Automatic annotation (TrEMBL), chain A:
GO molecular function: magnesium ion binding; oxidoreductase activity
Domain Transketolase-like pyrimidine-binding: from-to ranges: 4-179
Record carries keyword Oxidoreductase: yes
Domain of life where this protein originates: Bacteria
Organism name: Paenarthrobacter aurescens (Arthrobacter aurescens)
Native organism taxonomy: Bacteria, Bacillati, Actinomycetota, Actinomycetes, Micrococcales
Cofactor section: thiamine diphosphate
UniProt-recorded name of the protein: 2-oxoisovalerate dehydrogenase subunit beta
Automatic annotation (TrEMBL), chain B:
One family name in Pfam for this protein: E1_dh
Domain Dehydrogenase E1 component: 65-337
Protein name: Pyruvate dehydrogenase E1 component subunit alpha
UniProt-listed GO biological process terms: branched-chain amino acid catabolic process
UniProt cofactor(s): thiamine diphosphate
InterPro entries: Alpha-ketoacid_DH_E1_comp, DH_E1, PdhA/BkdA, THDP-binding
Length: 326, 396
């Protein structure tokens, strides 16, 4: 068992894929000699050369568009978008092309492209460096959206994403890049579905669902609730599309209460989808309405006030109180 | 900004600069071999390539141009009769498409936009399958791998990047291939229009192609109009000249001269296959009819312009040449006409027979791998549909 940060775990996962799959390659801005602005690809160009770790021109549509062409030719490109807020120039290629090619060709063409996006706030950065656009992509059929919350998952999920024959958007919780955890490089410990949700803490009074950067926050809130004599279950979704409603539903049937937390704006977000589905599937088991904890309906605010924007332990505890008061 | 804030004389300077910028762009030479009068000229580089075209090949060019024009008329008629939702005619652009299509080899991969019916014909795509998209029974219609002819793309310019990425894949394949590989070298052609040339993806594709020396030929059919907007609104310089800015050759060719188009494209593909990098070809041509069957060109252009271009018709000039040189007789032209009618008949009958797919097929191909949401929604749909069936049974 090795201990490493999430950034290092992704790096090791990419290294394993580049070693095992000669048709895989990385492409993005500054990912070669610099190793990416977050150093996630550090050292890989030395090991695999600039044909496998490609420093591209500064052009997001170009990165994703050419990756599509490479995939059509039988390659497995892994694109890095430097920051969440800069994926929009590639939005067209991702939503109108990448997502649809398999369907348009009635399954004759596959485009196994992975798009890595460091996302989310909490790092005190400037405009366009702290966004959570996952709902925009999850709404598009044909894409898979996943986000690891710990080092072990980061190591294995990136490899599974590269193996996947569908396009995968791999959202990396950038404020957790330096979070250390144990990684079992021998044994993925994954079920048949590598992106199934995990119950990361068991409890009986309420369920909190989170993914990526908010999983540690949800766990901390659940631990704090113990002081009030509450037993809270926490689910790490891991995959946003497809979304493992079965695991959430089973938990809600046990606890009767559900809180969904994500950094993206609450309105039109993934939380609303979970709330609606669980209301349909487990209406009679719910003791309280599903409560969402998320960002406000505003552009991601300036760093000095992001603490007020981001879901934190207190906001989740407040939601728990509200849920438990029914 | 008030002019009083400007130093004396500035306004005149600005006016002169503006006038200069608005003046017709830099001069550009156009490669032409077969003139509108049907006589063959020469070119220091491309005549050598033209010499490779034997009389049989010239007859094939003519046959294909005539066939695709006939097909175009038939598809337009089918649309008028409500059999197709929309049609995108190509009349006027036959030489650009047939000439360039025939210059490609089977291992080359082609990324069309949506008007490349002539190239599809050359690449042996079943034209009835090509109509599926326009009849609303498919978002594609053919297997792109069978003839290395990609599906049509309706989002302008998106495919130019796919073409470059594909070309980068060809480069990598060559490096991965074993030393004794006998696979022929391949290149890629990306087709797009003068309007599409304004899209950012064309710029990015040219940057990538140049940076990696990708074996790709950009084939721009400048048919002078992007729906109702003339080329002058898209560019201040001749489109072929833009290549210079990216660092690779750009050539304007008479797009109504099938011999020159073939020669130039053959040269460009050889250039790309040999690892000498991308080429931009601007085929200078004209969309004689409407942009699509939903368009009305009388609203935005003069009929005199169209008439002038009809004088340069690609089929007429090759016919003149073939007759003058004694390369084709009346029987040949009669046969071409009969073949065209045959094709039209085939297309008409198969269009009626194009199968409407089951929406269940659409569920099946959203993802390559299992996806629980798809399974759930399909199960719901099956149950919902079954409800109607049992209602019917109960009613009977
Ligand atoms: C991204 C995008 N914007 C707008 C359109 C709508 N549209 C379809 S064809 C067309 C004009 C295209 O002109 P050009 O590229 O010159 O090609 P042509 O149709 O003349 O062959 C427009 C604006 C589109 N298909 N895609």
């Amino acid at each position: 068992m090795a201990t490493m940060t999430i950034a290092k775990a992704i790096n090791e996962g990419l290294r394993a894929s580049l070693t095992n799959n000669p048709k895989s390659l990385l492409m993005g801005e500054d990912i070669g000699h610099l190793g990416g602005v977050y150093r996630v690809t550090d050292g890989l160009i030395k090991e695999f050369g600039d044909e496998r770790v490609v420093d591209t021109p500064l052009a997001e549509s170009g990165i994703v568009g050419t990756a599509i062409g490479l995939a059509l030719r039988g390659y497995s490109p892994v694109c890095e978008i430097q920051f969440d807020g800069f994926v929009y120039p590639a939005f067209n290629q991702i939503t109108t092309q990448l997502a649809k090619i398999h369907a348009r060709s009635l399954g004759k063409l596959t485009v196994p492209v992975v798009i890595r996006i460091p996302y989310g706030g909490g790092i005190g950065s400037i405009e366009h460096h702290s966004e959570s656009p996952e709902a925009l992509f999850a709404h598009t059929a044909g894409l898979r959206i996943i986000s690891p919350s710990n080092a072990h998952d980061a190591y294995w999920m990136i490899q599974k994403a590269i193996e996947c024959q569908d396009p995968v958007i791999f959202f990396e919780p950038k404020r957790r890049y330096w979070l250390k955890g144990e990684v079992d490089v021998e044994n993925a410990g994954l079920s048949e579905d590598p992106f199934k949700a995990h119950v990361v803490r068991e409890g009986t009074d309420a369920t909190i669902v989170a993914y990526g950067p908010l999983v540690p926050v949800a766990l901390a809130a659940a631990n704090a609730a113990v002081e009030d004599g509450r037993s809270i279950e926490v689910i790490d979704l891991r995959s946003i599309s497809p979304l493992d409603f079965d695991t959430v539903e089973a938990s809600v049937k046990k606890t009767g209460r559900l809180i969904v937390a994500h950094e993206a704006p609450t309105f039109g977000g993934i939380g609303g989808e979970i709330a609606a589905r669980i209301s349909e599937r487990a209406f009679l088991h719910l003791e309280a309405p599903v409560i969402r904890v998320g960002g406000f309906h505003m552009p991601y605010p300036v760093a000095k006030v992001e603490e007020d924007y981001l879901p934190d332990i207190d906001k989740i505890l407040e939601a728990l109180d509200r849920s438990l008061s029914y | 900004m008030g002019s009083t804030q400007l130093p004396p004389g500035t306004e005149e300077t600005l006016a002169a600069a503006t006038a200069k910028a608005a003046a017709p762009g830099e001069p550009v030479e156009m490669v032409q071999l077969l003139g509108p009068d049907g006589t063959l000229g020469s070119d220091p580089v491309f005549s050598d390539y033209a010499k490779r075209i034997d009389p049989e090949k010239l007859r094939v060019f003519y046959t294909d141009m005539a066939k695709i024009r006939r097909f175009d008329q038939e598809a337009t008629a089918l649309q008028r009769q409500g059999e197709l939702a929309l049609w995108v005619p190509l009349t006027g652009q036959e030489a650009a498409q047939i000439g360039s299509g025939h210059a490609s080899q089977s291992q080359d991969y082609i990324f069309p936009t949506y008007r490349e019916h002539g190239v599809a014909l050359v690449r042996n795509v079943d034209l009835a399958e090509l109509l599926k998209q326009f009849r609303g029974v498919s978002n594609g219609g053919w297997d792109p791998r069978e003839n290395n002819f990609h599906l049509y793309t309706l989002v302008l310019a998106a495919q130019t990047l796919h073409a470059v990425g594909y070309a980068m894949g060809i480069q990598r394949d060559q490096k991965l291939a074993s030393a004794d590989s006998t696979d022929p070298k391949a290149a890629v052609i990306a087709y797009f229009g003068d309007g599409a040339s304004s899209e950012g993806d064309v710029h990015e594709s040219m940057v990538f192609a140049a940076s990696y020396n990708a074996p790709v030929v950009f084939f721009c059919q400048n048919n002078h109009w992007a729906i109702s907007v003339p080329t002058e609104v898209q560019t201040k310089v001749p489109l072929a000249n833009r290549a210079k800015g990216y660092g690779f050759p750009g050539i304007r060719v008479d797009g109504n001269d099938v011999i020159a188009v073939h020669a130039v494209t053959e040269w460009a593909l050889e250039h790309a296959r040999e690892g000498r990098g991308p080429v931009l070809i601007e085929a200078y041509t004209y969309r004689v009819g409407a942009h699509t069957t939903a368009d009305d060109p009388t609203k935005y252009r003069e009929s005199a312009e169209e008439a002038a271009w009809r004088e340069k018709d690609p089929l007429d000039r090759l016919e003149k040449y073939l007759r003058a040189e004694g390369l084709a007789d009346e029987a040949f032209f009669d046969q071409v006409k009969a073949d065209g009618d045959e094709l039209a008949k085939y297309v008409r009958s198969t269009t009626h027979g194009l199968e409407v797919p089951d929406i269940r097929d659409a569920f099946a191909s959203v993802y390559a791998e299992q996806h629980p949401l798809i399974a759930e929604e399909l199960a719901w749909f099956e149950e919902y549909s079954a409800g109607f069936e049992s209602d019917e049974e109960a009613a009977n």
